[in-house]
Amino acid sequence: MLRLIFTRLALFVPTLLAASIILFIAINVVPGSAARSALGVDATPQAIMRFEALNGLDRPLIVQYSDWFIKAMQGDFGKSFQNRVAVGPEILKRLPVTLELALLAFLIANVIALPLGAIAAFRHRKILDVIITTFATILGAVPNFWLATLFVLLFALIWPILPAGGFTPFLSDPKANLIQMILPALSLGLVSSSLLLRIMRTTMLEVLNSAYIKTAHAKGASERVVLIRHALRNALIPFFTVGAVEFGFLFGGVVVIEDIFRLPGIGSLVLVGIINRDYPVLLGSALVITIVVLAANMIVDTIAMILDPRQIHAGER
Amino acid sequence: MNFLSKFNWIRHGLLTIGIMIVGTVIVAALTAPIISPYSPYDLDVTMMLQAPSADHWLGTDELGRDVLSRTIFASQISIQVALVAVSVGVIGGTIIGVLAAYFGGVTDLILMRLMELLFSFPAILLAIVLMASLGTSILNAMIAIGIIFIPGFARLARATTVEAMQQQYIEAARSVGMSHSRILIIEIMPNVITPLLVEAAVAFAYAVLLESALSFLGLGAQPPEPSWGNMLNTGRGFMAQAPWLSIMPGMALFFCVLGFNLLGDGLRDMLDPHLRD
Known about the structure:
CATH architecture of chain B: Orthogonal Bundle
CATH topology of the largest domain in chain A: MetI-like fold
Largest interface: A-B, 54 and 46 residues
CATH class of the largest domain in chain A: Mainly Alpha
CATH class of chain B: Mainly Alpha
Order of helices and strands of chain B: HHHHHHHHHHH
Oligomer: heterodimer
CATH topology of chain B: MetI-like fold
Distance between the termini of chain A: 14 Å
CATH superfamily of chain B: MetI-like
Number of domains of chain A: 2
CATH superfamily of the largest domain in chain A: MetI-like
Largest sheet of chain B: none
Structural class of chain B: mainly alpha
Shape of chain A: globular
Structural class of chain A: mainly alpha
Radius of gyration of chain B: 22 Å
């Protein structure tokens, strides 16, 4: 088992390497686009050549990539094309904001999805199940950026009870920080809860139909004991494994939400990178988001392997 | 017609509602120039930020343009983007998935590892990164969203092909000396198409959402072209004076996504009832 866990952990390195290559290729898919984008369409060929020489863009792509990747692994993401500021420290400053937003949103999504998904499965094909699944279907179709806009309209403009944006670090003023985070985290979390709710319902249904639950019923265990002690516990492992994937999607969704609520996180840095055509900024922030997503998947996979060794054998098959 | 009259529309309620919503959106997109009361581009400075009224049912925007007309025309962009992006995803994904499953070995390993890797990227992030290089336009949004869909369809096509390959008729086709391309196109493809269609309906919803998110960020459809995403983005600046700008395009987007989601769920229920729960 330990060997398999180490193998899973060791796979992180080549995965990260391949992910960084994909990001690098995606940004450089059109040769010379970095210089043209940064200097504008009217840039002369001489200006483009000067720009490329200054930023090392005239070297072969493979050299550029290896140079960038080796430095990035040491926390050096290069300097911004726009203001020559180092990208690494900027990312480091913004990472806690995005992590806090994503974690709060994930928490909200789980707090909604876990009980509602379990109840829907327990009341399978009864009115409560229909109401909950309809709620999940409707929620799943709501674009998070529209929900965020409606929240601002309702809770910051019509009934001004919450701020429409801004950020105070948690350590400076925890209360102000959490108040500012309510609307952004709710916009992300509510929409994400839809998929998690469906997953919880499906997982719970599988567990409730298994032999050991029937045995527990046959032995006279109460509904509450069966649901909480036997079913819920066993449904949680597959739920969290799939939930980690949703965390990845949610982490990607921060770009739009951070823009709406003017949060100084990595998501808004990605946007700054693309609007200013500032490739070091874009590439650095996109790589860090990817690392967080891959790491979340790896951690959850490893925990799931420890908690449920059947997954290891499934993997071996 | 016989099939339509025999089809139990009430039993397949989700599918029925999905078809009705999607049908409405498609009809709106096709007949936009006929049913829209005004041109979506005509400016009228005397009618700026007018609240909904008998003349302008959904009000007017900051340039005096009719919001209803722009909302109807925006459905064209959404359907076009979704159609092209999903086609790119289905065609690219099917080719990769079928080839990986058919030839197996190293081809399978390399192609599917690449697909898994692409799948692990947050979709909107990959779209943004791709658009940084391709440039911000609606055509590039279609391509970027299409590329994002390739891994999902490849995994599905591979799984279905692997299943089909275990059937005796494939063995028989090989034993009579049928060429690889004939086996792939005539024997395997018909098995792959049905699950891909179901997935395509769900992907349509996601494509509409992604296009709107990109346009909302200013990376997709560019003004004055109407898109639900860029209309919502513009509305942000006038929330206090004209809240309808932030509500109506969002409602249209929500119903469009809901329609495609219901259509996908309904098709899945109908074609594979085991997956219903």
